[in-house]
Design brief:
By secondary structure, the protein is an alpha/beta fold. The chain has one domain: 3-Layer(aba) Sandwich (Rossmann fold), CATH 3.40.50. It contains 10 helices and 8 strands. The chain is globular and about 45 Å long. The two termini are 33 Å apart.
Length: 256
C-alpha cells in the first residue's frame, strides 16, 4: 500500500516540484533541493529539459492517434501537463495520473478532477499488478486499444531489488500493438561530482541509482525505438542545447 503522509519525510515528487518552480513542497524538500543546487545549479535546467521531453513524447503519441495516456509516478501537477498537451491534439484523449505519494494524489484529484477524461489514481509503480487491476476495475484504460505510458523521472528511484525491468514488462505485456513507452533515467556517465551530490539523498525516499545507457535501453525490450534512440534528453528537443554534467537519458519506444 502507498505510504501514509509524513510532512517530515523528504519525497522526490516534492523536490522535483520545487526544482520546477512549483509551490507544492515542504521545508525538508526545499532544503534538499537547495543543497543540490548549491553544488549543481544546472539541475534546474535539466528538470525542464526532462519535462519538455515528456511533453514531446505525449505530442508524438497523440499525433500518432493514441487516445489513452498513463503517467506513472506523475508527481505534482504542473501546467502544461499530460492531459493539456494530449487534449490539445485530440480533445477526447483520456489521461490517468498515478503516484504513490498521498499528497501528490490529493493535489491531482483537486486540480485535475475538473477536465473530462482525466483521473488520478493512488498506486505504487513497484506494484504494477495492483495498478493494472485498479485501471481495469475503474474502467480507466482499455488495454485492447493503444496506450502511451510515461515513466519520466521515475526509474532511477527504483533500486535493483525493486526489479524495474520486471515492472516495465508487466505493463508492456498488457499493452496493445501500437502503444508507446517513454522513459528517462539518470545516467552513470554523469560527472562524478554530480553523482556525489545526488548521493546525498541516500537512505531517503528520494534515493537514486544511476544506470548505463545499455542498462536503460534494456528496459525497452519488446519496443521498437524511435530515433534518436537512447540519448540525453537534450538530443530529443533540438540542436545546440547545452550539455549538463548530470546526464539524463531519454528514449521512446513503440510496441509492434
Amino acid at each position: 500500500m502507498p505510504n501514509p503522509f509524513d510532512p517530515g519525510e523528504l519525497t522526490s515528487a516534492r523536490v522535483y516540484d520545487y526544482l520546477l518552480g512549483g509551490r507544492d513542497n515542504y521545508e525538508i524538500d526545499r532544503d534538499m533541493a537547495s543543497q543540490m543546487l548549491s553544488r549543481a545549479p544546472e539541475l534546474k535546467v535539466l528538470v525542464w529539459f526532462t519535462r519538455s521531453f515528456m511533453l514531446k513524447a505525449v505530442e508524438m503519441a497523440a499525433a500518432a492517434g493514441i487516445r489513452q495516456f498513463l503517467d506513472l509516478g506523475s508527481g505534482m501537477p504542473i501546467s502544461p501537463n499530460v492531459h493539456e498537451v494530449a487534449q490539445r491534439i485530440e480533445p477526447s484523449a483520456r489521461v490517468v495520473y498515478v503516484d504513490y505519494d498521498p499528497v501528490v494524489h490529493a493535489h491531482c484529484e483537486a486540480l485535475l478532477a475538473g477536465p473530462p477524461g482525466v483521473a488520478a489514481l493512488l498506486g505504487d509503480v513497484r506494484r504494477p499488478r495492483d495498478i493494472l487491476d485498479q485501471l481495469r476495475d475503474r474502467a480507466l484504460i482499455d488495454f485492447n486499444e493503444p496506450v502511451a505510458i510515461s515513466l519520466v523521472g521515475v526509474l532511477h528511484y527504483l533500486m535493483d531489488d525493486d526489479h524495474p525491468a520486471e515492472i516495465i514488462a508487466a505493463f508492456r505485456d498488457q499493452l496493445a500493438p501500437g502503444s508507446y513507452l517513454a522513459i528517462t533515467h539518470g545516467s552513470s556517465d554523469s560527472d562524478p561530482e554530480i553523482l556525489e551530490v545526488l548521493a546525498g539523498t541516500n537512505n531517503t525516499s528520494a534515493q537514486v541509482t544511476f544506470r548505463s545507457t545499455a542498462q536503460t535501453e534494456a528496459f525497452l525490450a519488446g519496443f521498437e525505438l524511435f530515433e534518436p534512440g537512447v540519448v540525453p534528453v537534450q538530443e530529443w528537443l533540438g540542436p545546440d542545447l547545452p550539455d549538463t554534467r548530470m546526464v539524463m537519458i531519454g528514449a521512446i519506444g513503440r510496441k509492434p
